[in-house]
Every structure is written in structure tokens, then in C-alpha cells.
User: Which sequence fits this backbone?
């Protein structure tokens, strides 16, 4: 059992996009990503090393000062998807449409 | 409750911005009791501390500022990691939600952080202009925007609070291991009680209904029906599925086949179903129980697969796109398997 290894979720579904031309190589995305999705490539340009490790938390996009990263961010939580489909927004758990000021969750 | 009246406040530090409550770094019995309760899913949404500024040790104008959420479990993890340290702790109002989830929802965010920096008058409190923000808060915080709006630079700290002393000693440098979110056996095991308690909310009433139905509609007296004519087996089958989905799936997660959680849950359910059927046949004979056996072979994996899918919310590496994809495929299959299983079970009972 590889307890320390990086865990991968479904193949080829993550919406993560990186615009290498815009990248200034500041390394913020490497710092904030808890899944080691990025590596610093040659010429101080970041590249995506393992797209299937991306959990779409959006930390890289939030912290990229030149908007070179885009991801459809959200929480990978089946209950949140159910809550959204059932129109529940602020009950026991989160939904995908939570307002920044409301709700309780997780 | 007033900020200074909270049980973990042990004194106050006089500062240019007024007295700041000083907090204990050793957890008391009531803190451990509170942690146990929320780990069991009891009162988890009301387990909060007052937002604002706190002191750990006797911090000075050059001591680090550590930012956290106002979920008491997060706050307690942080202060317990800071024994012997001098630091300021800035607690944001996240409605009692942990840093990671609150960052995803935006309550642990750039605006809230900048507002709290202003409200706590940090500019007058410290000489430096640095905030240590937990790395898992980064999905709500834009470091460059915080710098622009508040004048404070964001330094992302380690994922785990207990790595903070090493991080601070190393001049606020995190090692790659501190930056990685793991999902080890102990980290998964601690989630089992709350998963089980949440499942109990529907599984216990359902058990009562099944028990009542088998007692009332069987051939003998109520308890005789429950004991000898299927009621007990029905409940055992249901709970096999619940345990497979909420206990086996989290514990065995890395070794269960596939990447999809519904598949992993289904596989755990299949193991439980085979074990259940072996006991079922050995106790009640195989002659006229073939249909019931087949029913449980469908029902137990369906229940476990659904609960495995639910575990995506507690897991640390699932994406929304992935969850949606597996739900589109798995939920219809789970419903069909459960319905077929139920029909077979009823049919098997009629033949008896």
C-alpha cells in the first residue's frame, strides 16, 4: 500500500488549463497546490505534470498574479451535488451555489 | 460570548491596540470532549470560537501572525501546535467552518481577511507586514490582492498546524512534504464515526420500518417473524451495506479497485455481500434461498456504492468534475440494483 503517494482521481476530467505564454514563473501555484500538480519547467515556465491529480480547488487560479491558470473550481462532494439538485442551499451541508455569507457545511 | 470569557483564555496581553486575550496551548478535558463530540458528528455546526485577535505566549511587535478559521477544532489544533511559541492568532469568521471548506465557499477569503486585518488594527500591533495563512486556505485567498488591499504579504504556511514550529524555525520555508495533503490510514479512520452517524440518520429509521414490516406481515407472531422469518436477516443485510460503505470503504480506500469512489464502495459492498451470503446460506440452507441471496448480492453493493460516493465529500483529492461524472453513471446503476434487489427480496418472501 502506497500511503505516502499522491492519490489520483478519475482520468482526464479535471478542467485545469495553463497558459504557458502568460506564465512568469513566480511559483505561487507550486506553493499552494496540495496535490503537486505543477512543476517548474525549463525557462522558468510552469507546466502541469499530472492533470489527474487536480482536485479543482482553485487555489492556483486564485493566487496566479497574471491569470495564467484557469479551472472550473468547486468542491468534489457528491452531497453538495445532490443538495444543489434538490434546491437545498443552507441545510446540513453545502451546495454548489452557496453564497459567500451563508450556509454551513462539511 | 465575549471574546475574553471563553474557557481557553488564560490571561491578557497589553498592546498598543488594547488588551489581547492570551490562550492556553495545552488542551483541557473539555476541549478533548468537544473534539470527540464533533468527530461523532454531534453539534458540528455550532462548534465555534469568537473571531478576532488572540495571543499565544507573550508575542511582541515582530512576532508572526497566524490566520485561521473560527471552527473550534481548527483553532484548537493550531494553539496546541504552538506550545512554547510567541505568536498572534487572527481568527476569521467562517461560521464555524474549517479553513479548507470555508475557503472553497469564500468565507475564508480575501475580503474577510483584509476586513479582519483592519478591524484588529494589525498595522499598529506589529512592525512587520506578513500574514501566515494555512496553505489549504489558498483556494479562498488571492495573496497578491491581500497585499494590495491591506499592505500585508501572505506567506502560505504548512497544510498541517503541527508542522508550524518547524516552518517558523526554518524562516517560514515549507518543505515539499509540508505542502502535500495526504490521506493516510489514520486520517481516513478518524472520518469513519461521522460517516457512520450520518448514515444512521436514515439507516436506523429504515431498520425500524423493515423490522416492523417483517413482524406484521410474516406467518407467525411479531417477534417470531422478526427472529426466524427474515426480519433479522433483512436488518443484517442493510447494515452490512452501511458498514461496507462507511467503515470498509474509507479504511481500505487505496487498495479497493478503480479510481471512482462509487466503484470502490461497490467493491467493498461485494466483499460484504459475499460474507453475508456465506453466513446466510450456512444458517438457513441454500435450497429455497437462492433468490434472497441474489437480492442481497445486488442490495449490499448498491448501498455501499452510494455511501462510497458520499465519501467523496470527506476525501481530500476528489474534483467536482470527477464527482459529477461518476454520479451520472453510478447513481442510476445504484437505483436499478437496489430496486431489482428489493423486488427479488419480496418475491423470495412470497415463495416461502
Assistant:
Amino acid at each position: 500500500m502506497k500511503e505516502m503517494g499522491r492519490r489520483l482521481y478519475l482520468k482526464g476530467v479535471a478542467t485545469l488549463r495553463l497558459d504557458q505564454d502568460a506564465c512568469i514563473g513566480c511559483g505561487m501555484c507550486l506553493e499552494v497546490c496540495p496535490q503537486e500538480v505543477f512543476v517548474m519547467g525549463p525557462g522558468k515556465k510552469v507546466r502541469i505534470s499530472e492533470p489527474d491529480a487536480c482536485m479543482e480547488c482553485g487555489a492556483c487560479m486564485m493566487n496566479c498574479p497574471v491569470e495564467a491558470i484557469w479551472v472550473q473550481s468547486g468542491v468534489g462532494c457528491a452531497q453538495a451535488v445532490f443538495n444543489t439538485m434538490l434546491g437545498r442551499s443552507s441545510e446540513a451541508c453545502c451546495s454548489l451555489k452557496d453564497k459567500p455569507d451563508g450556509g454551513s457545511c462539511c | 460570548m465575549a471574546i475574553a470569557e471563553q474557557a481557553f483564555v488564560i490571561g491578557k496581553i497589553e498592546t498598543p491596540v488594547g488588551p489581547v486575550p492570551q490562550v492556553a496551548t495545552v488542551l483541557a478535558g473539555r476541549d478533548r470532549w468537544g473534539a470527540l463530540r464533533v468527530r461523532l458528528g454531534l453539534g458540528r455546526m455550532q462548534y465555534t470560537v469568537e473571531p478576532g485577535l488572540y495571543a499565544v505566549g507573550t508575542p511582541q511587535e515582530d512576532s508572526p501572525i497566524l490566520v485561521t478559521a473560527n471552527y473550534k477544532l481548527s483553532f484548537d489544533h493550531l494553539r496546541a501546535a504552538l506550545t512554547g511559541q510567541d505568536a498572534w492568532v487572527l481568527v476569521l469568521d467562517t461560521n464555524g467552518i474549517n479553513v479548507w471548506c470555508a475557503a472553497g465557499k469564500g468565507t475564508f477569503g480575501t475580503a474577510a481577511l483584509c476586513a479582519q486585518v483592519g478591524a484588529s488594527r494589525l498595522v499598529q500591533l506589529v512592525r512587520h507586514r506578513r500574514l501566515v495563512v494555512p496553505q489549504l486556505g489558498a483556494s479562498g485567498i488571492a495573496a497578491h490582492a491581500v497585499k494590495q488591499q491591506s499592505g500585508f504579504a501572505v506567506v502560505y504556511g504548512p497544510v498541517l498546524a503541527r508542522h508550524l514550529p518547524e516552518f517558523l524555525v526554518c524562516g517560514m520555508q515549507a518543505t515539499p512534504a509540508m505542502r502535500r495533503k495526504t490521506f493516510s490510514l489514520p486520517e481516513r479512520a478518524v472520518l469513519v464515526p461521522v460517516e457512520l452517524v450520518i448514515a444512521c440518520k436514515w439507516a436506523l429509521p429504515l431498520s425500524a420500518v423493515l423490522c416492523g414490516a417483517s413482524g406484521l406481515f410474516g406467518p407467525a407472531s411479531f417477534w417470531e417473524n422478526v427472529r426466524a422469518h427474515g426480519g433479522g436477516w433483512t436488518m443484517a443485510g442493510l447494515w452490512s451495506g452501511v458498514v461496507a460503505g462507511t467503515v470498509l470503504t474509507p479504511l481500505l480506500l487505496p487498495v479497493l479497485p478503480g479510481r471512482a469512489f462509487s466503484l470502490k464502495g461497490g467493491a467493498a459492498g461485494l466483499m460484504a455481500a459475499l460474507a453475508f451470503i456465506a453466513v446466510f446460506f450456512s444458517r438457513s440452507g441454500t435450497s429455497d434461498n437462492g433468490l434472497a441471496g441474489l437480492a442481497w448480492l445486488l442490495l449490499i453493493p448498491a448501498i455501499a456504492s452510494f455511501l462510497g460516493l458520499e465519501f467523496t465529500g470527506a476525501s481530500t483529492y476528489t474534483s467536482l468534475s470527477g464527482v459529477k461524472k461518476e454520479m451520472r453513471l453510478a447513481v442510476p446503476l445504484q437505483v436499478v440494483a437496489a430496486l431489482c434487489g428489493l423486488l427479488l427480496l419480496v418475491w423470495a418472501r412470497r415463495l416461502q
Summary: Helices of chain A lie at 28-32, 59-63, 78-85.
